[in-house]
Amino acid sequence: MGTGRTPRTIFITGASSGIGEALASLYAEPGRTLGLLARREAALHAVAVRCRARGAEVEVYPVDVADAHAVHAAASAFLSRVGEVDLVIANAGISLRDDETGGDDRVPREVMAINFLGAVQTLAPFIPTMEARGAGSLVAVSSVAGFRGLPNAGAYSASKAALNAWMESLRLRLDGRVHVMTVCPGFVTTPMTAANPFPMPWLLSADEAARRIARGVRRRTVVIVFPRRMRWLMLLVSAAPPWLYDRAVRWVRSRRPEVFHRSTAAPSKTGDRDD
Ligand SMILES: NC(=O)c1ccc[n+]([C@@H]2O[C@H](COP(=O)([O-])OP(=O)(O)OC[C@H]3O[C@@H](n4cnc5c(N)ncnc54)[C@H](OP(=O)(O)O)[C@@H]3O)[C@@H](O)[C@H]2O)c1
Question: What is the three-class DSSP state of 37?
Fold first, then answer.
């Protein structure tokens, strides 16, 4: 699959809901074969049924991305089924607040195992064949949370920062022979954000996020941060010295203490486009 050609064989993790489900639907059409992976088998099968109704062939893998052997087996099975894989999207992820633990290391271990190692374990089995062909796209769904440490979300921020660095290193290693793209969304309406108790600026729908990811794949972009206003904010946030970043966080905390505390209020309103 080179520039301008559409992927025919696509492997997506975290396809049972949210952005992964939206990507599966977006790519589902005749002539395409999808490999969909997530833990919840019933939800995954429901997505597969909808994708088949749109004309795609679908293989389903009810697997935990933290289980390296199971992910490798699923990737090998999909490769054997389709021969060549054009696009892999490591999208599975969880978001746990640091205060969801009693001070032990359960949260960082779980979040790193799924968000970082799970993505690495998803992409790694496909690298040799893509490299040999000199074709294909390897995509990881990271987050703007990886640009700086967020208060009460240290494990989540760390997992995404690690993923950003690993993807950058992979991109340099493959040096254009295979397209490598890191996706850093801002807020997207999915089950992950449904219980956020604070207003989420520039919220996008999962369908819109999927469209932007697919556009990045088509254009062979290497890093996408969306929406655009979040991209500008992240440029400022990344460049800010620690004293300024700390001051900004304190300012937000003094005005909206709920941003850094758990609760179960309703989600904010969804807008589809900002740019
Ligand atoms: N929503 C946002 O605002 C936002 C912003 C930035 C980045 N992201 C990133 O976008 C990605 C997708 O999240 P989402 O917002 O679409 O949330 P979501 O609806 O909760 O989807 C997460 C997906 O990951 C799967 N998953 C979680 N743990 C897994 C595991 N151990 N093994 C296999 N699959 C697993 C879930 O399926 P099962 O539960 O069935 O396994 C589900 O399909 C994540 O990497 C997230 O960090 C989201």
Answer: strand
